[in-house]
């Protein structure tokens, strides 16, 4: 396992980050703990969850799995989503962030969070309020580093400017959607990240499973799968442009004697701005398949072949379903 620096920090994390979103509802607790332990044994030292995943269930299970394995693990969670019925049980206010951090610490069973991320931007809350709250958490020893998720380039730059202006701890990483079907962050976000030393941790590197190899043009997906009907969750049909990319990936995977999911993950990791791609296994087999991405090499010729199918900075499908607001990269 070759570990990578997280942005301009001195922290080294594994190139694959274990996303814990499925734990507690996509996977039973016992199976989830086994998946976490197998990932740790394989050398993954980076785990990412969020308070809103299962309304705390994912954090609770993750905490149980790490009870005797906390040392050496870079543990990340997120705050923003709706965690109650009250008017202040959601968002990026100081009120919600402070309460959310204490609740996450309790569920995880730890004394500090290594990476605390704002799950989505919120224009109605000034960024300086959010940053001051996060800075106070760092100074209190409850949080080590802070980051964002699904921020547009201008929002990230605004936050860095405010941090410098107010002498506050700055965001060290951003977690955007990025995969072969959606390359929009290449236009502005990735150049910003490289310029200012911000780590990039892509979520949905398999486009919600569309790049897993189990979907075929003109056919329904496997029974019980996310896209069983052949349509996205928005109800839109998968466009031909997306199938062109999927079939190109399938052909290249055959050439490299690997599975498509491993190839798609390796492609994201081949971008110099990417620190670690988030995998979200629901089963042990999913994890084993994803781990094989570390053995797949993406050459410059491979990149050029994909560029011919889907141009840099473009997207082939609106597979993304906004849970917390509109997609910021349109």
Itemize the secondary structure elements and their pairings.
Elements: E1 4-5, E2 12-13, E3 16-19, H1 29-41, E4 46-48, H2 57-65, E5 74-79, H3 94-108, E6 113-118, H4 127-139, E7 143-149, H5 153-166, E8 171-175, H6 189-196, E9 199-200, H7 240-255, H8 260-269, E10 277-279, H9 284-291, H10 300-309
Parallel strand pairs: 3-4, 3-10, 4-5, 5-6, 6-7, 7-8, 8-9
Antiparallel strand pairs: 1-2
Helix pairs in contact: 1-2, 3-4, 5-6, 7-8
Put the structure in a nutshell.
The chain is an alpha/beta fold.
Verbal overview:
The structure is a single chain. By secondary structure, the chain is an alpha/beta fold. The protein has a domain of 172 residues: NADP-dependent oxidoreductase domain (TIM Barrel). 35% of the residues lie in helices and 12% in strands. It is built from ten helices and ten strands. It has an eight-stranded parallel beta sheet. A two-stranded antiparallel sheet has the order 1-2. Strand 3, helix 1 and strand 4 form a beta-alpha-beta unit. Helix 1 packs across helix 2, helix 3 runs parallel beside helix 4 and helix 5 packs parallel to helix 6. The longest helix has 16 residues. The chain is globular, with a radius of gyration of 19 Å.
């Amino acid at each position: 396992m070759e570990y990578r620096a997280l942005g301009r920090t001195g922290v080294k994390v594994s190139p694959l980050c274990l996303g814990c979103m499925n734990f507690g509802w996509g996977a039973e607790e016992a199976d989830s703990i086994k998946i976490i332990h197998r990932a740790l044994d394989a050398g993954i030292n980076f785990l990412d969850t969020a308070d809103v995943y299962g309304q705390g269930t994912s954090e609770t299970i993750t905490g149980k799995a790490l009870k005797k394995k906390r040392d050496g693990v870079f543990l990340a969670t997120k705050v923003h989503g709706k965690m109650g019925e009250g008017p202040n049980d959601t968002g990026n206010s100081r009120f919600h962030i402070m309460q959310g951090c204490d609740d996450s610490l309790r569920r995880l069973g730890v004394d500090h969070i290594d990476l605390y991320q704002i799950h989505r931007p919120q224009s109605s809350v000034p960024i300086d309020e959010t940053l001051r709250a996060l800075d106070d958490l760092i100074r209190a020893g409850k949080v080590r580093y802070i980051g964002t998720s699904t921020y547009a380039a201008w929002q990230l730059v605004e936050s860095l400017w405010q941090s410098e202006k107010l002498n506050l701890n700055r965001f060290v990483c951003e977690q955007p959607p990025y995969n072969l079907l959606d390359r929009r962050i290449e236009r502005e976000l990735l150049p910003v990240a490289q310029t200012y030393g911000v780590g990039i941790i892509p979520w949905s590197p398999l486009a919600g499973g569309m790049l897993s190899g189990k979907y075929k043009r003109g056919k329904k997906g496997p029974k019980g799968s996310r896209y069983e009907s052949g349509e996205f969750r928005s109800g839109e049909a998968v466009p031909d442009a997306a199938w062109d990319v999927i079939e190109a990936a399938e052909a290249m995977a055959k050439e490299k004697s690997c599975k498509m999911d491993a190839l798609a993950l390796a492609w994201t990791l081949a971008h110099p701005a990417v620190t670690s791609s988030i995998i979200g296994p629901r089963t042990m087999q999913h994890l084993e398949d994803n781990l094989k991405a570390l053995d797949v090499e993406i050459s410059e010729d491979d990149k050029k072949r994909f560029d011919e199918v889907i141009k840099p900075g473009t997207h082939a499908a609106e597979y993304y379903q906004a849970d917390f607001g509109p997609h910021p990269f349109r």
